[in-house]
């Protein structure tokens, strides 16, 4: 059931500012898996995700979604299949929260009724129903993050590419919104800095550092004392689903 890969990254290399930021990076995520991409600041996580959602051209390597190289996707099929939560979501000037959610469904073959129902449901889940007409550019950081997540929930893609989905969210909405995405059973690749949260949701995870792949496995396999020391420079490990951090290694 989980054997078909939905996301395949083979030997991806990306140079930015003249330096290799992603270096011969490979990863395969099976259909329906929730996969974490973890690592310290500057490891290259966002750059890998940017290549995945076609915002960054690789210098080398190939990326496939559902078996098809990225360059062969039509825009319409892409919109139906892939939803991305990005770090810099662009200007929301002049748009209401509802507009932002609706824009995410552009080009989807939906009736007006289906579109409205999806928008209403996504706003409800994200706790934004009462704020639907608020100007999106003026809301708090957490409300803006909820708006972007509601946009993806309404679009209901097959593949969720999420760059720090828990950013700015209070604890309740970190759990509510990630529970909702997990419940849908689609393919997810997400970056996290909160490793306890990552362990709670990820079936599998990859550690990267300096643009390179270090290890892939289950949270228990990956968040070990040795890997935490090598990749994150902290003493600690995953214990009973929670990260126990003793100290930074200086
Ligand atoms: N446009 C750019 N030009 C030059 N260097 C860049 C550019 N974008 C990113 N970088 C560098 O590439 C490296 C990887 O950045 P990236 O944003 O992928 O890291 P990250 O793992 O997502 O980090 P963080 O956890 O801090 O968000 C960093 O050293 C960053 O400074």
Automatic annotation (TrEMBL):
Alphabetized UniProt keyword annotations: ATP-binding, Nucleotide-binding, Translocase, Transport
Domain ABC transporter: 7-235
Family matches, as Gene3D superfamilies: P-loop containing nucleotide triphosphate hydrolases
Pfam families, alphabetized: ABC_tran
Entries under SMART domains matching the protein: AAA (SM00382)
Molecular function, one GO term: ATP hydrolysis activity
Magnesium among keywords: no
Main function: Part of the ABC transporter complex HmuTUV involved in hemin import. Responsible for energy coupling to the transport system.
Protein name (database record): Iron complex transport system ATP-binding protein
């Amino acid at each position: 059931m989980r054997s078909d890969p939905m996301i395949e990254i083979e030997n991806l290399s990306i140079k930015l500012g003249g330096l290799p930021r992603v270096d011969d990076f490979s990863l395969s995520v099976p259909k329906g898996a929730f996969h974490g991409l973890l690592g310290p600041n500057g490891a290259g996580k966002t750059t890998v995700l940017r290549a995945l959602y076609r915002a960054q051209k690789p210098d080398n390597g190939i990326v496939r979604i559902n078996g098809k190289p990225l360059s062969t996707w039509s825009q319409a099929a892409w919109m139906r299949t892939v939803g991305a939560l990005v770090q810099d979501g662009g200007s929301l000037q002049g748009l209401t929260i509802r507009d932002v959610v609706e824009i995410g469904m552009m080009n989807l073959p939906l009736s007006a009724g289906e579109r409205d129902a999806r928008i209403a449901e996504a706003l409800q889940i994200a706790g934004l129903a009462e704020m639907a007409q608020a100007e999106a550019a003026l809301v708090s950081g957490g409300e803006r993050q909820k708006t972007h997540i509601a946009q993806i929930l309404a679009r209901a893609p097959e593949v969720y590419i999420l760059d720090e989905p828990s950013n700015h969210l209070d604890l309740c909405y970190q759990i509510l919104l990630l529970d909702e995405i997990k419940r849908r059973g689609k393919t997810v690749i997400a970056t996290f800095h909160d490793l306890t949260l990552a362990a709670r949701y990820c079936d599998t995870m990859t550690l990267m550092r300096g643009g390179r792949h270090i290890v892939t496995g289950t949270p228990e396999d990956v968040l070990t004392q040795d890997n935490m020391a090598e990749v994150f420079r902290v003493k600690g490990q995953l214990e009973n689903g929670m990260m126990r951090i003793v100290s930074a290694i200086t």
